[in-house]
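A further point concerns the way the authors explain their paired sequence and structure data. The central task, working out the structure tokens from the amino acid sequence alone, is never made concrete. I therefore recommend that a typical entry be quoted early in the introduction. An entry of this sort, consisting of the sequence and the corresponding backbone structure tokens, reads as follows:
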Amino acid sequence: MQIFSALVVSVLALSNGATAAFDCKKAQVAGFTYDLSALNTEITLESNATTPPTITGTSYKLNICGPLASAPDSVPEIDRCPANAWVCRSVTNYKKDEKSRVTEVNAVAGVGSKDEPSLEARASGNESPREFHWKMSGTEVDKVGWSADIKLVCDKSAKNENPPTLVGFSQGVLSLEWSVPAACALGDNGDGGKDKSPDNDKDDSSNQGGFFSTLFTLFIVGSTLYLVVGVLYKSLVVRATGLDMIPNLAFWREFPYLCADFAQHMWDMAGGRRRDGYSVV
């Protein structure tokens, strides 16, 4: 029995882990859906600084949709990015006539196999965010926790192939900015609206149908109350009997003729046969 319970717990844990996996194709930000799958590729950003008598090169490798692929066997294990890293920082020292030397390799974002990024944005009513932040924690170096903060900006005039811009690396935080069409919500035509999918159109139709249904129900209930209360009043207070118990009987007797006169009047107006002044009797 204990073995069976342990198996059940393990299966539930695995299923929960599978359903909680970060899905780049259906990323949720402030209640809106974003398809970031076009950005599901490894990108390398490099910068060099002159540090006589050497040159120090800093490289950032990242993939916002999942952990980086393992380095080939030709790369020494000590020089490889840590496993499960989504963003990796490596520093290489170059000196003339000498072989390059990797002096630092650390995970800026992603440490454990279950680590996932968070997508943060400021809500702005019913409009989809035009920019949001991709954030994820990484390793700890000299008691300083490293992390990545990538600002994604909706820009339909740009291309998804454009690399992000390196803003800086300070206090263990790597800051990037990425202006791409993929950072626009699904169904966003530039007005910040929600996704106009068939499901949303169906919801709009249902809302309209619900309004008319409610209006019709109110009419039926109101008419029934009017008739019941009127009959009771005529019967108990006025002591009326027969057809005289109907409330406003004179009006209802004239109602068909009033409707006919109104229809004839509208017909005459529509046909341009309206005449001003007195009619011949």
